Amino acid sequence: LEPFWAYFSPDSDKATFSLENAVFCIMGLVFSNSLKLKSSVYYCDLFISCLDSHSDGSNYAMSNGGGGAGASSSTHLLDLLEEPIPGVGTYDDFHTIDWVREKCKDRERHRKINSKKKESAWEFTKSLYDAWSGWLVVTLTGLASGALAGVIDIAADWLNDLKEGVCLSAMWFNHEQCCWDSNETTFAERDKCPQWKTWAELILGQAEGPGSYIMNYFMFTFWALSFAFLAVSLVKVFAPYACGSGIPEIKTILSGFIIRGYLGKWTLMIKTITLVLAVASGLSLGKEGPLVHVACCCGNIFSYLFPKYSKNEAKKREFSTRVLSAASAAGVSVAFGAPIGGVLFSLEEVSYYFPLKTLWRSFFAALVAAFVLRSINPFGNSRLVLFYVEYHTPWYLFELFPFILLGVFGGLWGAFFIRANIAWCRRRKSTRFGKYPVLEVITVAAITAIVAFPNPYTRQNTSELIKELFTDCGPLESSQLCQYRSQMNGSQAYPAGSDAAAAPGVYSAMWQLSLALVFKIIMTIFTFGLKVPSGLFIPSMAIGAIAGRIVGIAVEQLAYYHHDWFLFREWCEVGADCITPGLYAMVGAAACLGGVTRMTVSLVVIVFELTGGLEYIVPLMAAVMTSKWVGDAFGREGIYEAHIRLNGYPFLDAKEEFTHTTLARDVMRPRRNDTPLAVLTQDDMTLAELQNIISETSYNGFPVIVSKESQRLVGFALRRDITIAIENARRKQEGIMLNSRVYFTQHAPTLPADSPRPLKLRSILDMSPFTVTDHTPMEIVVDIFRKLGLRQCLVTHNGRLLGIITKKDILRHMAQMANQDPESIMFN
C-alpha cells in the first residue's frame, strides 16, 4: 500500500486527488509486478509524470486529444500500453501471405504460452491443449477423410450400376451385392441373378433381343446425362470451386496464396456430392485428386476450432500439408490400398513446405484414414483396395525390355496428354465455348455414353476395368481375357495360362481393348478440366493398364509359339507359366501415371503396396524412370504444374531450375523510365498525404524510409494494415484529422503547439524486411523466394533503397527469359 499512501496521503507532497492519477498508479503497480523491474513507486512516478505532461497548459488534454510541445518530448501513454489492432496481419483474397512474419508471430505466441504454463494449472492445461491441437486436428481429418472416401466409393458404385438396372430385393444394393445371396448364379454368368433386373426387363419384360438392347442403351445414356447435368449444375450454382481436380490449387495454397472459399464448407459439401455423380456418369475421370481436395476442406474446417491454426496463415498451411498427406492416404488408399504411398505422394508431388514434424503427423493421419477405410470395407473384400492382386510367377531379365517399352509409351502419352489438354483448356478459356460449362459437360457426357456402351470394356466402371486387367488368369476367372485353349492332363481339363494358345475370345478382347485405348486417350483429353470434379489417376492408369495387358498377351503368345528362341529357351520351359500379362498391365499403369504426373518414388511405392510383392520393384522402377525421362525430354512440368501456369497462379516450382545470369537490379521495380517507387517517410507525412498515396496506387505495400533525401530504409508496411490501422485510430482515438502527422518511429516528432494529435503506426511496421543488394544474382533471389516463402524483397545499394522485387516480378522475368508473354501468365 506504500505507493497509494505516497500519493493519496494528505501529508504527502505528491498527493493528487484525481481519478486519472489513481488509475495510472494502479497501472504502475501492475506493470512493475508483472515485469519485476523497478519499484512500484517508480512506475507511479512515471505514469503520473506522463499524465502531467499531457495535461499541462497547451499540451495534449485527455478529453480532446489536442497536441503540444510537451507531448512531443514524451511518449504517450497509449504507446506504452499498445494493443494489437484488430484485423492487422490478415490478408485479402488472391494475395500471398508473408511466411516470415507469420512464423515470427507463431514463435512469439509459443514463447508466451511457455512462459505462462508454470503460473497455474489452467495455464499448463492450455499449453498441453496447444501442443496436442495439431494431433487432434490431424486425427479428425483422417477420420473424416477415410469416412468420406468410403461413402463416396459405395455411392458411386451404386449409381454406376443404376445405369444398367436395379436390385428388386434391396434398392440400395449394387449389382454385385444384389447377387451375393443368390443360389441361381453360374460360374460363367456369376453376375446374373433373378434379384437383379435390367431396365429392359423392367420396362419391356424381355432380357434379350434388339428391343432390349436399345432400351438398355437409352437408359444407360439417360442416366449418364442426368448425373452429369446434376453435377455441373450443383457446381455452377452453389460452389464453383468444387470443379476440377483441386491439386493445382492445393499446391498453390500451400505455397502461401490465399483463395477464400476454396477450402470452405460449401465446397466440401458440393464436391462430395458431385464427385459421386461425376464418377457415376461414366466420364473419363477419377476420384483420387478430388478426394485430396475434399480432405483438405475437412482439415481447413477443423483447424478453425483451434486458435493455433485459425489465427496464423503460415501454421494453417504447414498444417494443410499434413492434411494433404491424410487426404492422399485416404484417396490413394481407396484406389490402391497404399497409405504410405499417399504420404510420399504428398512429399514428392504436392507439398511446398514439409518439415520433419509434418512427416510424423502425416504418417499418423495415413494410419487413421486407412483404419477408417478398412472398418467401412467399401469393396466387401476385407481389403483397402478394389483390385488387389497377387502374382506367383517371377519376372525374368528379358522382360525388362518390354517393361522399358511400356515406360517409353507412358512418357510419350504423358507429354502428348499434357500438351493436348492444355491446348484445349486454353482454347476453352479464350473462346465462347468456355462460357457454357453446362453445355460442354452434357456434350462430353453424351459422346462418352454413346460411344462407350457398345464396348464392354468402356461401358464398365473404370476401376472395375483396371481390376480385370490386373488380375492374373486362373481357374476361377471367367473373363474373356482368360479364354485360353485348355490342355488335357490325363482325363482332366484345366484352363491354361501362358502354357496354352489364346482362344478366339482373347483375340476379340484385344481388339476391343485397342478400341477402348483410343477412346480413353481421346476422351480423357477433353474431360480433364470440365466444370465437374475430375481426377486423373484412374483414367491414366486405365490407359496404361490396357496397353500393358495387350503387350503382356503378345509377349505371352510369342513365348508359347516360339519357346525355342534363344530369348525364351533358357528360362521358359514348355508348359510352364513364364509370362504374367497382369504384371504388364500393372507396369503400364504405373508408367502412364508417371508420364502424366512425373512422380517416381511415391508411384513405385503405391504400386508396390498394391501388389504386396517386393520382387516387382525393379520392373516398376525401370518403367517409371523411363517414363519420366521420356516425358522430361518434351517438357519438365507435369500436368498439375501445367495447369498452375495456365491459370497464372503465383507459384514458384521447386523443380524448375533458374539458369540465367541476370541480377536483382535487372528485375526490380521501378525500371528505367518508370515512375519513382512509392515510399513513405518515417515522420514527416500527414494523414492526407498517406491516404493520397494509398488511393492513387494499387501496391500491396510500401517501403518506409528516413527521408526523401537520404533514402535510408526503415521498414515495410502493408497496404491492408495501414488502412485498418487508420480506420481503427479514427474510431477509437479522438483528435485524428487529415493534417495529423503520421509517424513510424518510437517517439513522436516535435510538433507546433496547435498541431492535431499525431497518429503512430509503428506497430504495423515490419522493421526487418528481407533485403538484397542490387548485384545479387537472380538465381540466389529465386532460391530465397522459394525456400523462405517471401512475397516481396527490397533492393538496396549501400543501405539506400533502390527498388522492390515481388513474386510476380520473378514469374514475369522467368516467362520473359522463356520467350513468353510476361503478362499472359499472371492470375486474373
UniProtKB/TrEMBL annotation:
Domain CBS: 668-734, 765-823
Entry-linked SUPFAM superfamilies: CBS-domain pair (SSF54631), Clc chloride channel (SSF81340)
Keyword terms: Antiport, ATP-binding, CBS domain, Cell membrane, Chloride, Endosome, Glycoprotein, Ion transport, Lysosome, Membrane, Nucleotide-binding, Repeat, Transmembrane, Transmembrane helix, Transport
Main location per the UniProt record: membrane
Listed Pfam families: CBS, Voltage_CLC
GO CC terms: early endosome membrane; Golgi apparatus; late endosome membrane; lysosomal membrane; plasma membrane; synaptic vesicle
InterPro entries (UniProt xref): CBS_dom, CBS_dom_sf, Cl-channel_core, ClC, ClC3
Keyword check for Repeat: yes
Membrane protein topology class: Multi-pass membrane protein
UniProt xrefs under PROSITE patterns: CBS
GO molecular function terms noted in the UniProt entry: ATP binding; chloride:proton antiporter activity; voltage-gated chloride channel activity
UniProt cross-references to SMART domains, sorted A to Z: CBS
Residues spanning the membrane: 220-242, 262-283, 326-347, 359-376, 396-418, 438-457, 509-530, 542-563, 583-608
Compartment list: Cell membrane; Early endosome membrane; Late endosome membrane; Lysosome membrane
Gene3D superfamilies per UniProt: 3.90.1280.20, Clc chloride channel
Entry similarity comment: Belongs to the chloride channel (TC 2.A.49) family. ClC-3/CLCN3 subfamily.
Chain's role: Strongly outwardly rectifying, electrogenic H(+)/Cl(-)exchanger which mediates the exchange of chloride ions against protons. The CLC channel family contains both chloride channels and proton-coupled anion transporters that exchange chloride or another anion for protons. The presence of conserved gating glutamate residues is typical for family members that function as antiporters.
Protein name: Chloride channel protein
